[in-house]
Design goal:
single chain, about 400 residues
Length: about 400
């Protein structure tokens, strides 16, 4: 069955934007006939919205007059909002259309950052970010499930490439934020501009999008709270923790690391975040063909090795260039770990795909967001080099749990 037919919309498999225009189909309906590209766009826009905050953290810290530990505490609103919402995110995704989740969720995420930028109290800042964390939780589950469904119906891997566009979105946000910071545009104005742009683009592109059908229908658990993971999902949690901490550390603290350790200008500090994101994006974009050829376990082992080398470069960096190389390797090394874990979770049969993905996200994605308070506390008392060194123990654990990617285990 062609995907176009699956959506109830006749279109030849070789269709592209130019052909659609020639056939008299409005360009706004393009994603109805190109579901893979719709998923790629959803990941990009989600990441661009989320990533707007992080390159401006140094400026927000300065404007609030707080230290690294206090900034880390202020950012705890994000993981709290994520964890609270993940308790029922699977049911939201099951009941609400994907396009509505994307349009409303991205707008809420962006707006929360605008109000957070105006905060002068750490408690107000954290409280506002709870709203952003709630949006993150629902969007995260929704976009990954949509990617898995289209992957299942098309018969081709797209999960890693989908996450590549997430990284490209973060790269775009990093470069944009660094540029705004370099020319002394306030974080609030920066966030308002991005909110208007991303919300409008998301609405125009997805207002007519029809989401994919579920991979399979299953019996929905009557559990109304915490989605406890099965043993297989728990092993995927242990496998994924290192990549999420490495990625979270890069996103949250790379800019401040470059500023505090090497006294770099804003554009160079922003480059550390951008390099990690672009390396991650490039690896993810081409990863699916290597996963098909060599298998997820072998690809993961090479990825973990790259992360170890990257973290070592950052921890022991004698000059900015070595640190930038480290962030590049950390981004590339962490690229495939989480997407592969998400695919493995969605394919496991103990529970429904929604519950498996949500339970994995509940445990793993929070590490990505808890990195600010944990690493901020360590950075304030021991130094940011020690904060990044915390990644080493989790990388060792990941080496011993690579086999969890086999959904038949």
């Amino acid at each position: 069955m062609q995907l176009a037919g699956w959506y109830g919309y006749h279109c030849p498999p070789s269709s592209n934007a130019a052909q659609i225009v020639k056939q008299g189909i409005p360009l706004r309906d393009y994603f109805r006939t190109q579901p893979k590209k719709a998923v790629f766009a959803s990941f990009f826009l989600y990441a661009f919205s989320l990533g707007t905050l992080f390159p401006r953290l140094g400026d927000i810290q300065t404007s609030m007059g707080i230290d690294k530990a206090t900034l880390g505490f202020a950012l705890i609103g994000l993981p709290f909002g994520v964890q609270l919402t993940l308790l029922f995110a699977d049911r939201i995704v099951r009941k609400i259309n994907f396009r509505f989740i994307l349009i409303i969720g991205i707008a809420l995420l962006s707006i929360s950052q605008c109000f957070a930028a105006l905060s002068q109290s750490t408690y107000t800042f954290a409280g506002i970010l709870i709203l952003g964390g709630a949006a993150i939780a629902v969007i995260e589950v929704a976009v990954n499930l949509e990617a898995d469904r289209i992957e299942a119906h098309s018969g081709h891997r797209i999960m890693n490439r989908s996450h590549a566009y997430w990284s490209f979105g973060f790269f775009g946000a990093g470069i944009t934020g660094a540029g705004f910071s370099q020319i002394a545009i306030s974080p609030f104005l920066n966030f308002v501009i991005i909110t208007v742009f991303v919300s409008l683009i998301t609405f125009l592109l997805f207002k007519s999008y029809e989401p994919a059908k579920p991979r399979r229908e299953g019996v929905v658990s009557q559990n109304k709270g915490f989605v406890w993971p099965s043993w297989g999902i728990l092993m995927l949690v242990f496998f994924s923790l290192s990549a999420m901490l490495v990625e979270g550390a890069s996103i949250d603290w790379s800019v401040i690391f470059m500023r505090d350790i090497f006294n770099t200008v804003p554009i160079v500090g922003g480059l550390s975040l951008a390099l990690a994101a672009i390396a991650q994006g490039i690896v993810r974009y081409f990863a699916d063909q290597f996963v098909d050829r060599y298998g997820p376990e072998k690809v993961s082992l090479y990825s973990l090795t790259a992360m170890v080398v990257g973290v070592a470069c950052v921890v022991f960096a004698p000059e900015p260039v070595t640190a930038l190389l480290g962030f590049l390797l950390m981004g590339g090394g962490s690229a495939v770990i989480f997407p592969l874990a998400m695919s493995a979770a969605a394919q496991r049969s103990e529970k429904t795909p929604e519950e498996n993905v949500a339970s994995l996200a509940q445990f793993v994605f929070v590490i990505f967001l808890l990195a600010p308070p944990i690493l901020g506390f360590i950075g304030e008392h021991l130094g940011l080099r020690w904060s990044f060194a915390l990644c080493f123990p989790l990388l060792i654990i990941s080496y011993f749990t690579v086999s969890s990617l086999n959904s038949k285990n």
